[in-house]
Amino acid sequence: xxxxxxxxxxxxxxxxxxxxxxxxxxxxxxxxxxxxxxxxxxxxxxxxxxxxxxxxxxxxxxxxxxxxxxxxxx
Length: 74
Ligand SMILES: [Zn+2]
What we know:
Layout: H1 3-6, E1 19-24, E2 28-33, E3 43-44, H2 48-63
Antiparallel strand pairs: 1-2, 2-3
């Protein structure tokens, strides 16, 4: 199963840079921006069924503009 092909990830809602879906320690997913470093919330999964669901949910939040900015001092 290729998660990247099943989940649609838009450009960064803050800067328009490329957003990529990242797997964290094999137990959760989040989307991060390659340009400004902002990211969506980390959504965990415990099974392969939950894996796709977690990836879809974090991508959905990202696509809606619900991101956490990493910019220091802002
Ligand atoms: Zn960005």
